[in-house]
Amino acid sequence: MSCDHNESLGRLIYVTAQDIKNFAEKILQPCGLTLEQFHMLKNMSEGSGMSQRKLGELVNKTPANITRILDRLEAKSLVRRYNSPEDRRASVVKLTPEGQKLVHEVFSIFESFSTSLTEGITEKEQQVTRDVLGRLSRNLHLMSPAFYSE
User: Fold this and answer.
1) Which domain holds residue 48?
2) What is the Cα–Cα distance from 5 to 10, expressed in whole angstroms?
3) Which of 21, 24, 32, 90 satisfies CB 3.0 to 4.6 Å to 84 for a cystine?
4) Count of domains forming the chain
5) Is residue 75 included in any domain, yes or no?
6) What is the spatial distance between Cα 51 and Cα 84, in angstroms, rounded to a whole number?
7) Residue 89: which CATH number?
8) What is the pLDDT of residues 91-140, one digit of tens each?
9) b/e for 33-46, b at 16 or more Cβ within 10 A?
10) Residue 117 in contact with residue 129, Cβ under 8 Å?
11) Has residue 69 been placed in a domain?
């Protein structure tokens, strides 16, 4: 992608995010994972597990999407769901040993990807980018609180 200085910031962010997502999906394909599935796995605690609701909040997915993704991960023996001891209506999700192993393997691949992705970009420039993206995100939340409260 070439950088057109007249192109809107929103468009540049969108195109770059799509490029990163497509590249990440190619990295994950041999592991039998989608980016969405890996994002969920890496956000799960390795120890005691977490509620499905908490996991949904962490990965910004609706309950229906969380259930669908967890069904697929459970079929791959990467996670296991248990009834919550505190609330019979809730589920606790835990990584299986296979899931923990896969997360560690893929995480190291992504660390290398991240290093290559940011090559030639100073730490200061990376921090400015983080700050700007954080402000854009906050602005989005302020513009539409009802959208984010679902």
Assistant:
1) 9-117
2) 12
3) 90
4) 1
5) yes
6) 8
7) 1.10.10.10
8) 889 999 999 999 999 988 889 989 999 999 999 999 999 999 999 989 98
9) bebbbbbbbbebee
10) no
11) yes
